[in-house]
Specification:
The chain has two domains: 2-75, no CATH class; 106-245. It has nine helices and five strands; from the N terminus they run αβαβαβααββαααα. It has helices spanning 2-10, 22-28, 50-62, 106-130, 143-154, 168-189, 197-207, 209-222, 227-236, and strands spanning 18-19, 32-35, 72-75, 162-163, 166-167. A three-stranded parallel beta sheet has the order 1-2-3. Strands 4-5 form a two-stranded antiparallel ribbon. Strand 4 and strand 5 form a beta hairpin. It starts with a helix and ends in a 12-residue tail after the last helix.
Length: 248
């Protein structure tokens, strides 16, 4: 829709849109867009929240006040509430003890992260066979490659703002999305697990080494002055609703 908006505007009709993937919108540069931090498939947030959804629409429509068009990309200031369905708890056969924030060295954390990725592989393969949440990776990297990318970035072994022809900030964000999809697919393949979005999110951000590694990536991004890295560190790697787990 972002691409079509340029043609519609050329005919004199003002357009606005809601963006779920910020990188795509930055690349396409539609005339007006509102980025929301909601899960894919939920551009207005949680179902059965009419007042919240109306507010999202109002923010998107308010962008029509920008004339002539920008491109304008604004961030919606609120996160969506959790589902009304009771979240429940995950019962994972693989042990993921909470990683102490200060007590675990970076080297030890990275080794635990690699072990964790390896332990999830069997369940992920089962998920792929059953077609449970196992989608193609948008980063083009496999789990081991993602782990290596994060390790090299954290250890400052990547020189320059690009890698494999991609902006490094974009690659880090896409790799983070693929990593979450890998974990969610693996956990969903295990018998009797909840598929509630809030439960999966709380499990991932609260109990996995992967989440701690992503926080290290986030902190490294914030130590780089480039605007795209600052944006990744502030908004694009960890949901605002989960940031309380990492605030010092």
């Amino acid at each position: 829709m972002g691409g079509l908006s340029h043609y519609i505007e050329a005919e004199g009709i003002a357009t606005t849109q809601i963006s779920l993937i910020r990188e795509h919108t930055v690349t396409i540069r539609p005339p007006r867009a509102l980025w929301v931090s909601f899960p894919l498939g939920r551009p207005l947030g949680t179902p059965n929240q009419p007042e919240f959804q109306r507010d999202v629409l109002k923010h998107a429509l308010r962008l029509l006040e920008y004339s002539p068009p920008g491109p304008v990309l604004e961030d919606y200031p609120h996160d969506a509430a959790g589902d009304d369905i009771e979240a429940g708890a995950l019962a994972c056969p693989v042990s993921f003890g909470t990683i102490p924030q200060a007590a675990t060295s970076r080297d030890a954390l990275m080794q635990e992260f690699q072990d964790e990725v390896d332990n999830m592989k069997t369940w992920y393969d089962i998920a792929r066979e059953k077609s449970l949440r196992a989608t193609a990776g948008i980063s083009g990297l496999g789990p081991d490659q993602i782990a290596a990318l994060f390790r090299d970035f954290i250890e400052n072994k990547i020189a320059g703002p690009e890698l494999h022809g991609e902006k490094l900030s974009d690659l880090l964000r896409l790799a983070a999305e693929d990593l979450k999809a890998y974990y969610f697919a693996a956990i969903s393949a295990q018998p009797g697990q909840s598929t509630n979005a809030a439960t999966l999110s709380d499990w991932f951000w609260g109990e996995t080494c992967a989440a701690r590694v992503l926080n290290e990536v986030r902190k490294c991004c914030l130590n780089i002055a480039a605007k795209d890295m600052q944006l990744a560190g502030k908004l694009l790697l960890i949901p605002r609703s989960q940031m309380h787990r990492f605030e010092e």
